[in-house]
Design brief:
Layout lengths: L9 H22 L24 H10 L3 H10 L8 H26 L2 H15 L5 H19 L3
Helix pairs in contact: 1-5, 1-6, 3-4, 4-6
Length: about 160
C-alpha cells in the first residue's frame, strides 16, 4: 500500500520548536541566579488565541494553539477503504495528535497549578527540554523517521 503521510502536521511542528526554543532560553536565564523568564505559552502566530486566561472564551481558544486538524484529516484519508495508507500512516498520525493533546494538558496544568509547584517543575523541564537532542526535538525526528521508513519500505 502506498504511504499517504509525507509531512508532520505544521501546527504541531511549530508548537514543538517554539516550546523547545523557549525552554532553552528560559533555562539559561533561570540558571543565572533565578532571573525572571517570560511565562511559557505556545506560539500565538497562527492562532486565534491571544494568550489570555481570564475568560471562558480565552480558555476555549487555547485549543486552537494546539490544533492538529492537518494530522486528523490525513488520518481519516489513511483509512479510506478504496485507497488506504500504510502502517507508518497508522503510527505517526495518531502519535502526532497525542503529542499535541499532551502538550495542551501540560499547559493547562501549569496554568492552573500553584506557583511554587509550577516553578519546581518548570526548572526541571527547561533544563531537559531546551537543549540539543531534547525529547521535544527527538519527537520531530521520530515522526520524520516513521514517515521516511513508510516511504522506503512501502509499509504493510
Amino acid at each position: 500500500m502506498p504511504q499517504k503521510t509525507n509531512a508532520i502536521d505544521k501546527n504541531l511542528e511549530n508548537l514543538i520548536f517554539s516550546l523547545k526554543s523557549s525552554k532553552f532560553d528560559s533555562a539559561l536565564i533561570r540558571g543565572d541566579n533565578g532571573g525572571g523568564v517570560p511565562w511559557l505559552r505556545p506560539s500565538l502566530a497562527d492562532s486565534e488565541w491571544d494568550g489570555g486566561l481570564r475568560s471562558a472564551d480565552d480558555l476555549k481558544k487555547i485549543s486552537k494553539a494546539f490544533n492538529t486538524d492537518e494530522a486528523r484529516s490525513s488520518l481519516k484519508d489513511a483509512f479510506d477503504l478504496n485507497s488506504p495508507g500504510n502502517s507508518s500512516d497508522g503510527i505517526v498520525l495518531p502519535l502526532q495528535i497525542y503529542y499535541a493533546q499532551q502538550a495542551e494538558r501540560a499547559y493547562r496544568a501549569r496554568a492552573c497549578s500553584s506557583f511554587a509547584r509550577s516553578v519546581a517543575h518548570l526548572k526541571g523541564r527547561e533544563t531537559g527540554h531546551g537543549f540539543a537532542r531534547s525529547p521535544l526535538e527527538q519527537a520531530v525526528s521520530y515522526f520524520s523517521s516513521i514517515i521516511r521508513q513508510g516511504a522506503e519500505k512501502g509499509g504493510s
